[in-house]
Design goal:
By secondary structure, the protein is of the alpha/beta class. The chain contains 16 helices and 16 strands. Helix 4 links the parallel strand 3 (about 105-115) and strand 4.
Length: about 425
Amino acid sequence: MSKQPIGDPAPIDGSIPSESLRMFTTSERGFSAYVHVPFCTVRCGYCDFNTYTATELRGFSRTDWAGAIIKEIEFSNEVLFSTQNGFDADELSKSGTDVGNEWQHPLQSVFFGGGTPSLIPAADIAKVISTLARTFGLEPEAEVTLEANPDTVSAEYLQTLVTAGVNRISIGMQSAVPHVLATLDRTHNPENVRIAVDLAKATGLETSVDLIYGAPGESLGDWKQTVQEAIALETNHISAYALIVEEGTKLHRQIRRGEFQPPSDDLQAEMYEYLDAELTQAGFSWYEISNWAKTPKHRSKHNIAYWQGDDWWGYGPGAHSHIAGVRWWNVKHPAAWSERLSNNLSPALQREVLSEEQIYEEGLLLRSRLIDGLELADIKPEAHPAVSELVSEGLLTKEIISEKAQTGEKETTGERLVLTLTGRLLADTVILRLLT
């Protein structure tokens, strides 16, 4: 299981620095909610997410989950919209901002991730969505996504989700090839991916599938089969991630014992290039290094919120949050997380208050992954020589930023830097050179 970052102890009352709270309250940045479901029937060999099987829960159960999540939502409302935490409500009111629990900062997206969210009864998912909507409000076009294992959905389940407000489902396909799924310890029947996608589309849900490439023993031919079957599903969104072997996972131990060979960087690069070419031909466009959508409206709002540095509150054990330059993460075990909430204490374990330099560096790291790229004006002048080199090497491309003036003619407003296909494969190197 993944290790937590190291930060300062988080305040037990959940308080946020007054300046950050003021920035959040007055900001036009988007606000989202991530809701973590820590349950899995079986833990996959490659997975280092904060997940638990039934024997690891120490008395906590799936039936406890919704009530504890609702407690954390209520707790977050107190933190964000009360006049505690040292921010002056009277001063803020003078600036024209309404404050208090009646003022709402509506959510642009809600994402149920895991773990396996589709193991949770749809009625419990509905309770959580209802509480979020009542507490914060949902934007009219809010995106509400639930991750699902293809073996755990039915027409009735999906219809209840739609009634509750879910409008998008992300199905864990990973591969269409049985031996690759076996290496990853994925237990679903590949044929059930098509069934799950068709059921979801029949209920009116937007659909996405997740893929993983570069598993030990996966050939380019295996990957081509997976890509073609994913395209044939006729979803509007596809995510694909290169397998990273995380220390402490079962797969890491298997590779260390010599049972599998580690993923090949060259083969993974070849797989990515094939995927991008085939998806482009099928009418998809990349909008983030690991994500492709049929049209801009099918891009994941929640995904983009992370990459452009918006605000979000992460609910659930081990969940991470970010509010106006303050980042924190919850205790990992569901029982410990729930116990804190039962005592009206913050479930946060540690936090970081980001410096201006950290905000700048992370902004470059995150926004560079998007198709909108980086505005040249936002990059420090001392990095401009590196920009020129990266453009000449074919890793970045310069694009003119233009907008229509009142005359109807396009007006140039600056330049942006966008990763090329090769640049996407070497994104970490590109960012490192921009920061040194």
